[in-house]
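Table 4 source record.
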Amino acid sequence: LSISRQLARLLGAKINVESIPDQGSIFSLIVPIEIEEVQPVPEDVPSKNSSTNTPLNSKYFNYPSIHDDRGNIEERDKIILIIEGDEKFANILYEQANKKGFKCLAASTGEDGLVLAEKFEPSAIILDTKLPGMDGHKVLAELRENRSLRHIPVHILSVDDFFPPPSLDGAIEYLGAALNKKNLDEAFAKIENVLSRKVRNVLVIEDDENARKTICKLISGSDVKCFEAGTSKEALIIFKEHYFDCIVLDLGLPDKNGIELIHQLRNMKDHQLPPIVIYTGKDLTLEESNELKKYATSIIIKGLKSEERLLDETALFLHRTMTKFPSTAKMIKAGYFDKEMKFKGKKILVVDDDERNVFALSQVLLDREMIIVKAENGKIALEKLGEQSDIDLVLMDIMMPEMDGYEAMKQIRLMPNYIKLPIIALTAKAMKDDKQKCIDAGASDYITKPIDVDRLLSLIGVWLSK
């Protein structure tokens, strides 16, 4: 239905529904007889940071939008980019932003919004989730992956979504269907607060003092102040007394379970829960992982290279650029992005009998420009390795017909050319000793299903770098 609605919108159409409980529903597609084609209006547009006034191709690029301030922007202006498909609502946002002292850029599509963001590097972005073409969630993902744009605060607005996304992925707030003047004023006030505050606060909740100090040393800088808590009791006291932009939480606290602490923090009056990054050495059960995903923005399992992800995640929620990092963090961060580049061109053998899993994994890997080789079971995987000597890493499912993952890994380790080939086992974690069984069979590392994509990419990056 969501796809149908987007297709209808591209046609200038709409979908209506009438529903009666216990009887059924009637969906109606209303399509206009004629669709007026709007030609873009050419206009030279100055760049915020360019003295040569390099023009963009046109005012509206590929889709019409409202008139904005792009021809009247000066160096010190605070700029808000509005990516909104409804021109009437875009005008409302534009007027409100001007009243608050912001200059505005406007785009009606996600594609055009990304072009403007890259060109002007705005101070903040207001993003609708329902857009023609690329939707708002995809735009947010693109912004997050762009090194020069990922620190920009994004405020998500949507009148159509019934529920906010499980993770805001770096957005400062999600404002749903109940949009009114008060909500918009609060939204602009939050944007202004993010932009005006020079120092951001992070609460690090970790019972191990050495680990806590290490985290603070990694994150702290001229723009970030760390507050420390070794117990949930200390965390609650500190949280009441200060405003925090981000929380780093270890689950293994001496006086309370980390999930219980999140519930307590969430229920505190007059305190909005900031983004929470779970940073723990605990091997989570499926139930714990699902529960944490309701409230935590990111889950990082401590291990090799986990500092990179911790630095990356906190930087996202603190809207922090590379220039603000302390020297140690800069080195780690640079290494992280180098690792991202090292994905390109690497050949990965994906061994799984479930086509849905293979498709999902392949999409993630192809997005990083890796080369995918597929095998439906262990027997075929051995054949592929015999045919292709340039495989860089194997993702090995365990439960498969003909030859399971355990036997396949044992056979691979008997092959002279593949004694040190990185193999990451993928298991459903049916038994407590699964991890040890995988290692004993020849796995280099191990990850449970449902797969945490960020953690998987982190593991792949570690083993490729070795």
